[in-house]
Amino acid sequence: MPKMKVIKSIYIDSAPEKIYPIISDLNNWQEWSPWVIAEPRAQLNVASDGKFHEWDGDIIGAGNLKIQDEVENQSVTMALNFLKPWKSKAVTSFTLKKKKKGTEVVWTMDSSLPFFLFWMKKQMETFVGMDYERGLAMLKDLVETGATNSSLNFNGIKTFYATKYIGIKSQCSYANLGQSMEKDFSQLMEFISTRGEDSAHGNPLSIYHKFDVMKGKVVYSACHPMKEIPVEIPKNFYVGELPKMNVYTVSHTGPYRHIGNAWSAAMMHQRAKKFKAAKKIPPMEVMLNSPKNTPEKELVAEILFAVK
Prior knowledge:
The protein starts with a strand and ends with a strand. Helix content is 21%, strand content 41%. The protein has four helices and 15 strands. The longest helix has 25 residues. The chain is of the alpha+beta class. The strands form two sheets. The chain has an eight-stranded antiparallel β-sheet. A seven-stranded antiparallel β-sheet has the order 1-7-6-5-4-3-2.
């Protein structure tokens, strides 16, 4: 069977003594799990001692997790048993490494795929790695601030009305996405400000033309709907139009660094056949309030997938 290995880490500005009780008691996992956030209503059962956890859901599948070994303030090792969508087993562990005033938390998984899924090995390692990164980011917030600062609302299918927009199309690495988008949206808003705020219509949006997870590359457009398209626009701008359509929506409230929770949840819902995406229209992201005058914990962004 094809072997899988995932290793992800994060620095948390806190001592191991504060982190260890959170990861060694599975009663706490619901607060920062990168999977439970995608299906809060999944059936969850945790043993009274916090050493055994089982789940069953339409979105996140079914399985159980059992703590097998632990060294106080240093490590926790667990047996992971997946029951659906397919059966497999894994060993997952946390290691806490003291780093100056804080701790490096290392999350590792050793597993294998069913033989018939050998071709998915690299893809699965990438996706699980992204899940681990999301979980570690929420764990960091939980330890440092007392809350994960990330929540989702599943709004279902609604109507997106036809709109014309001006945009900047760019390509960048996933790691530089935030910086690249900030630059593009700054250019857009600066141009719009020269024409008067009433020239714009609605909220800024991003269109994701291509997201190559394996290569870590993104092709996107930073866009803003307009009441009327200007006759003259900068050379690196373009004019586009989106049709009226039905979209499946998931909204995220909290710092933008956690927006991956909404994207992952939407894709999990698609795989679970909660909606059927229209492949000819790329997914979008709309900012419903502005980072300039909104506390980051109150920022709201909405993910939209066109549906058939």
